[in-house]
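User: For my dataset I need records formatted as: sequence, then structure tokens, nothing else. Please produce one.
Assistant:
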Amino acid sequence: MSDKHLTYAESGVDIEEEEKTIKALTKGMTYKRTGLGAPLTDIGHYAGLIDFGEYALALATDGVGSKVLIANEMKRWNTVGIDCIAMNVNDLLAIGAEPISFVDYLALEEHDEDFASQIGEGLRKGAEFSRMSIAGGETATLPDIINGFDLAGTCLGMVRKENIITGEKVRLGDAIVGIPSAGVHSNGYTLVRKIVENSSYSYHDPFPYNPSTTLGDELLIPTRIYMEILDVIKECDVHGLAHITGSGLLKLRRVTGLGFDFHDPLEPHDIFKFLQKEGNVDDLEMYRTFNMGMGFVIILPPEQAQKAASMTGGKIVGRIVESGIKVSGLVIV
């Protein structure tokens, strides 16, 4: 274990600088179509919504990120397709939309049939979990640009306009239900890799908290797909939803300007305890980078919270307050 406190920014990903880049990228995107296809939301929520009559079509795009480097090290690529689909589908679910179709983009340094078959296996499983079809995609051979491969995709969903959930209904005193993650999911891996590569462990070593599996296999556990959210929406008065990914709990600022008090948070998985110990990462940095065992959040009236928790395998973890984000007294922002 290093004596130095590792951070996401020092590993190469500065969330604040990334936000500045996004603002610079989008500030000139001022043209907006009118009529059918007109945007219904501003850029910056979990998914973009466009007018489609009585429905809104929802669009999200995302990739697997540097988790693919661990897949390369382990020579096992059959789960990253699930991650690719999950990162997109969960963003659609976070505004109440049902996923209906997906297209993928696979950029390669070179071709390998076994590798391609494994990528396809993961994409197929992810699509089945999400109850949607893969309509097509693009494969690009880019040996002068790509070292290894990159996998990303775009998901199309739909939602009746009256059922869109943006967070505007969130009220003081609302309950927060946290739903467990499957593990690290598919963000923060630049810091994950820095921690492991600076430690005495390799990805092929037994995972100390569960020696029956390797560290690499533990880190390749695919992102959970939260399709049960659609059932909760049908049966409960959901005020807000959040998919906890890159920047950890800071993602909650997309949902509401009100605050979050996580007074009874979910227990972080052993993999987070390992990463924190080996990287000497402080609590604040962990919660500002990783999901810390909670991959999705539902905000709804307190009297309906236990029902939502039972439907999702989650639990009531906190309540909506006036400002800030706190976890057991730790101030996140």
